[in-house]
């Protein structure tokens, strides 16, 4: 078995044991094709993916799903893998008509999750979570809320099969889209320290070539 898949299998055991805290959709070679289209090296992308998944194992959740993500990100639901199939199923079985699916399922994490149990699609990995959930998953998320961390290893890249995520307010000259982050950010380190207050990681050193030494 390819080493990448072995690591994936091991991580999946933790995800199974930990439940939704470490929810994952991981074994996705098409994403590596996406990395190539973004000019990223496939091996580097695999390392970044595993680093991301280990972030879940440590208790981190997706930065692009924090409750205020829509202040920072535009979510293009129609570009998510499985969108057409999920919408067709809901329209047919639930007697819905356009644009009910887009206005409701595409904007509601719980509705999208319910649909994903009937028809596999990835929107529950993108849609922001409600603010007041009492689930432990969301408690972690609340603890991680500070300035939106664009450098986080827990941010998905813009691209999946199309541009799924876009920057809502790009700075002048800044692209609306981004490739997958490859490094652990200062914000990621701070989030892990909040979950495990007894650990004392070394002082944060911005990786060479990272976009920003300061966490924004
Ligand atoms: Zn993830």
UniProtKB/TrEMBL annotation:
Q: Which cofactor does it need?
A: Zn(2+)
UniProt GO BP: proteolysis
Residue stretches making up the Peptidase M12A domain: 46-86
User: What does the entry's cofactor note say about binding and number?
Assistant: Binds 1 zinc ion per subunit.
UniProt xrefs under Gene3D superfamilies: Collagenase (Catalytic Domain) (3.40.390.10)
What EC number(s) does its UniProt record assign?
A: 3.4.24.-
The entry's keywords: Hydrolase, Metal-binding, Metalloprotease, Protease, Zinc
The Gene Ontology terms for molecular function here are: metal ion binding; metalloendopeptidase activity
| The keyword Protease appears for this protein | yes
InterPro entries named in the record: MetalloPept_cat_dom_sf, Peptidase_M12A
Q: What is this protein called?
A: Metalloendopeptidase
What are the leading ranks of the lineage?
Answer: Eukaryota, Fungi, Dikarya, Ascomycota, Pezizomycotina
């Amino acid at each position: 078995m390819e080493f990448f898949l072995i690591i994936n299998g091991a991580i999946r055991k933790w995800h199974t044991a930990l439940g939704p805290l470490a929810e994952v959709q991981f074994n996705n070679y098409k994403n590596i094709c996406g990395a190539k289209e973004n000019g990223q090296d496939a091996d580097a992308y695999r390392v970044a993916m595993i680093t991301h998944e280990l972030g879940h194992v440590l208790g981190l959740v997706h930065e692009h799903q924090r409750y205020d993500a829509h202040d920072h990100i535009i979510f293009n639901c129609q570009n998510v893998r499985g969108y057409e199939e999920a919408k067709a199923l809901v329209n047919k079985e639930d007697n819905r008509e356009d644009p009910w699916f887009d206005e409701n399922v595409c904007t509601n994490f719980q509705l999208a999750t319910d649909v994903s149990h009937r028809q596999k699609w990835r929107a529950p990995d993108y849609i922001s979570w409600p603010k007041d959930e009492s689930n432990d998953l969301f408690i972690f998320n609340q603890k991680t809320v500070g300035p939106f961390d664009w450098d986080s290893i827990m941010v998905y890249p813009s691209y999946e099969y199309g541009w799924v995520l876009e920057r809502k307010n790009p700075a002048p000259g800044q692209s609306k889209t981004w490739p997958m982050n490859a490094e652990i950010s200062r914000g990621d380190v701070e989030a892990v320290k909040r979950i495990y207050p007894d650990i004392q990681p070394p002082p944060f050193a911005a990786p060479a070539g990272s976009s920003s030494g300061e966490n924004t």
